[in-house]
Amino acid sequence: MNHRVKAEIRYGEHFTSAGQILRSALVSGPGIVWVTTFLLLPLVAIGVISFLSKGAYGWFEPPFTLYSYKRFVGFGLLGFDILYPIIILRSFVLGAATAFLCAAAAFPLAFFICGLKPRYKNVALTLVVIPLWTNLMIRTYAWQIILGPQSWLSHLAAALGLVPTGAGLFPSTLAVYIGMVCDFLPFLVLPLYASAEKLDWSIVEAAQDLGANAFNTFRHGILPQVMPGLAAGFILVLIPATGQFVIPDLLGGGKTVLLGNLIQQQFLQSRDWPFGAAIAFLTMGLSMAGLWLYVRLTACKGEETLL
Amino acid sequence: MAIEVEDLVRRFGDTIVLDHVSLGIRQGEFFSLLGPSGCGKTTLLRILGGLDLPDAGAVRICGREAHGFSAGERPVKMVFQTYALFPHLTVWDNVAFGLRMKRLPKAEIERRIQRILELVQISALANRKPPQLSGGQKQRVAMARAIVNEPQILLLDEPLGALDLKLRKELQVELLNLQRRLGITFIHVTHDQEEALVLSDRIAVMRDGRIEQLGAAEELYERPRTRFVAQFLGTCNVFEATVRRPAATGFFAETALGELRVDLSLQTPPAQGRQQIALAIRPEKVHLCLPGQSSGENQVKARVEQLIYNGAETQYLLRSSGQQIKVCALNAKIGTQGYEVGNEVAVCLPPESLIVLED
Lengths: 307, 359
Fold this sequence. Notes:
The complex is a heterodimer of chains A (307) and B (359).
Chain A: H1 2-8, H2 18-50, E1 53-54, E2 60-61, H3 67-72, E3 75-76, E4 79-80, H4 83-114, H5 118-129, H6 136-146, H7 152-159, H8 173-197, H9 201-209, H10 214-243, H11 246-252, H12 259-267, H13 273-300
Antiparallel strand pairs in A: 1-2, 3-4
Chain B: E1 3-12, E2 15-25, E3 30-34, H1 41-49, E4 56-61, E5 64-65, E6 76-79, H2 91-101, H3 106-119, H4 135-147, E7 153-157, H5 165-182, E8 185-190, H6 193-199, E9 202-207, E10 210-216, H7 217-222, H8 227-232, E11 237-247, E12 250-255, E13 258-263, E14 276-281, E15 287-289, E16 299-309, E17 313-320, E18 323-330, E19 344-348, E20 355-357
Parallel strand pairs in B: 3-8, 3-9, 6-7, 7-8
Antiparallel strand pairs in B: 1-2, 1-4, 4-5, 9-10, 11-12, 11-14, 12-13, 14-20, 15-19, 16-17, 16-19, 17-18
Helix pairs in contact in B: 2-3, 2-4
């Protein structure tokens, strides 16, 4: 029995008996069917559509062309236009800024939770996760009220001279970032907490013992140890935050075009499926390239990663 | 004095970890804090290193009040039990860390590191990172990282605790040689009594936040003052006894084994007027012989209950009038012939080897 178990968990070996093939098919089959139907096929469809032309009535039709991609990187019918590259950049800045703000907020929070007594830790972690159980729209509308002209926060800001009297904190860039950080914070706190929890504090003490100041203690004693969690969390925030458009729309006043609403526009209002598909495909490609680069860079250092 | 500790108290919540500890550690000695886990030895070490603060009491390092000086500012460096090497830095950068924090000139840093890497024989590993090192190699890097800063005092928290027995024995010798060569004070925390005996000039045996006894290794082994020290440091037979009448250089005591003469010429007598005392004797000091062959004082008949043959020596477990006696005998002439389990034997407890305990 022991012998057989050993044989089965040996990775990279080919299954030999029909029974083993059947069993593994039964176990992994439903998952494979699900992924194929709802992820792989739509993805292939989007990929194919992105290379087709826009139809006269908004559908798509041959011939195959690279036009949508060219247009997206700035070379449209009317010569070079920086509009779309700016949208890419703007979305990326929003995503990266959100990820940085979340990281800055997650550090104290994760270490605070680590310092709690075991029974309070679970309570704290649940409190971190609870916002994820609430609908994004409801949360975002709630911020509209909290930051609106009538709220006491706005009155306070007006009293301090931060905004003109009568004006609200919403809509504004500040409101967008408050909403974004609030929405994405759990994705950074959880992996960072997991890393911080197993932190070897003696390395921190070693840094202090060797005369490191606060910055160097953090830089050499703490940061390298929590890097796997921090990087995983950063990516978990960066990628969806780059594609996020509901929060900027609802809290920013709906004045800026981002990748998310650009794609939505192409598929719905503009009925330009090939262009929408090209945007979706290219941004996905950019994210993948970024991830690959990250894995390569960290793998070179011989450090463990979560990816 | 390299270190003077006065009336040190440290509490964690309701538990008193250090209970009015005072001690002095001399310049250049190899000093061990020995005790079971939870006795406060590591906390004491951490307070000396500036990694923990006492609730009361004073610490003077090289004559200067240490309070108010951070770990990095003290002329003291720590070697951690888990080594605590920076995982993202190479061996070279690990060792360079303290010097770089002090902003020493580059050439000076390079010179010092090269010398220290040679001293602990890890020059070939300079470009490796800690995950690529073995336990013994990590230990050497941890040592190098601390002593490259030229501290007055080196604190070692169970430095060999994570290594296997054979490597531990090898590194014990190296540690001792290193200390003699550097001439700096080593303060070493361990729960391994054998390691403490091998390495230390002096040992403080700690128990429940207090120092139970402090002295040279030999003094502690030969003349333990309390039952705890006698039994924690090596093995020891302890008999309850009642003081009966004075003898030439000691007294006669009544025990379960009968009346025994205790010689006091090498030890302090029990407190005035104390009748109920405890006597201790080390297993190797008990003479074992066949019945009728013995010629010694304090002779007792016993039966062999168990024996463990170790090659060079044999450990016997004897019983006499309900009292257990542990005996350790060299197999100098012959092995265990005549002393098999169940046999009647005789033992002599030399009067000068019977130690009067304080509790």
